[in-house]
Amino acid sequence: DIHMTQSPSTLSASIGDRVTITCRASQSISSWLAWYQQKPGKAPNLLIYKASTLESGVPSRFSGSGSGTEFTLTISSLQPDDLATYYCQQYNSYSTFGQGTKVEIK
Amino acid sequence: EVQLVESGGGLIQPGGSLRLSCAASEFSVSSNYMSWVRQAPGKGLEWVSVIYDGGSTFYADSVKGRFTISRDNSKNTLYLQMNSLRAEDTAVYYCTRVISTWQIGYFDLWGRGTLVTVSS
Predict the structure, then answer these.
(1) Distance between CA atoms of B32 and B39, rounded to whole angstroms?
(2) For chain A, which residues lie within 8 Å of any Cβ of chain B, measuring from their own Cβ?
(3) How far apart are CA A63 and CA B40, in angstroms?
(4) Per residue in B47-79, pLDDT tens?
(5) What is the pLDDT of residues A16-69, one digit of tens each?
(6) Do A44 and B103 touch (CB under 8 A)?
(7) A5-15 confidence digits (pLDDT tens)
(8) Which residue, among A50, A94, A96, A102, would best test binding to B if mutated, counting the most B CBs under 10 Å from its CB?
(9) DSSP code, position A26
(10) B110, B95 Cβ separation under 8 angstroms
(11) What are the chain A neighbours of B112 within 8 Å (beta carbons)?
């Protein structure tokens, strides 16, 4: 099984800050990685797929990069609406998720 | 509107069975990979099962032999039959549509989820 590790587990930042979340895979997954945003009490929402492709309708302040075993999700300018938990998902070999990164507004 | 609506969750005793349903609107379940993902209270996401458009099915090791994914094309509905339920199966179960790559893919459409609580 492929294990996904996200860091940090919790992140506190101010409005307007640039925020970066890292996801590491236990083995190479090429670019088969997606990112999701989950707001409290809601279902997850797809942000990015194939490591760097922005899903339609997702604000351009979100971006993704990486390949192989190391990936990042960047929010270029944090907004109040971005309060959420973010998950990475590998789909190279069935599917596993990272443990999540909770983003708090300072 | 393109959407997924789950039903069938509830409180069930350990060892019991439950069947979840997921009704799809404005797209065909049979033409897509479809999957179940669960989330234990306060925890992260866990992939559970997938059914391919061709009908093949695959499961996470944690549910293999106990859960069965299926669909009814005439009702455009996805199912998850859960047997021999354990306390650790307690979770919100989400129905998802999969944009397929090869074994699986990413999840572009999610239902609101249905809560399954396994407790005596």
Answers:
(1) 23
(2) 1, 32, 34, 36, 38, 42-46, 49, 55, 87, 89, 91, 93-100
(3) 28
(4) 999 999 999 999 999 999 999 999 999 999 999
(5) 999 999 999 999 999 999 999 999 999 999 999 999 999 999 999 999 999 999
(6) no
(7) 999 999 999 99
(8) A94
(9) S
(10) yes
(11) 42-43
* Residue A55 DSSP one-character state: P
pLDDT of residue B102: 78
Residue A4 half-sphere exposure toward CB, CA atoms < 13 A:
32
pLDDT, residue B28, reads 97
CB contact under 8 A, A34 and B58: no
Are B101 and A32 contacting, i.e. CB atoms less than 8 angstroms apart? yes
Shortest alpha-carbon distance between residue A66 and chain B (Å): 17
User: Are B49 and A95 within 8 A, CB to CB?
Assistant: no
Is residue A49 within 8 A of residue A55, CB to CB? The reply is yes
Cα dist from A9 to A87, A96, B42, B67, whole Å: 10, 17, 13, 31
pLDDT at B103 over 90: no
Rounded to whole angstroms, how far apart are CA atoms B99 and B107? Answer: 6
Split at pLDDT 50, 70, 90, the class of B15 is very high
Name the residue among A38, A87, A93 with its Cβ closest to that of B103: A93
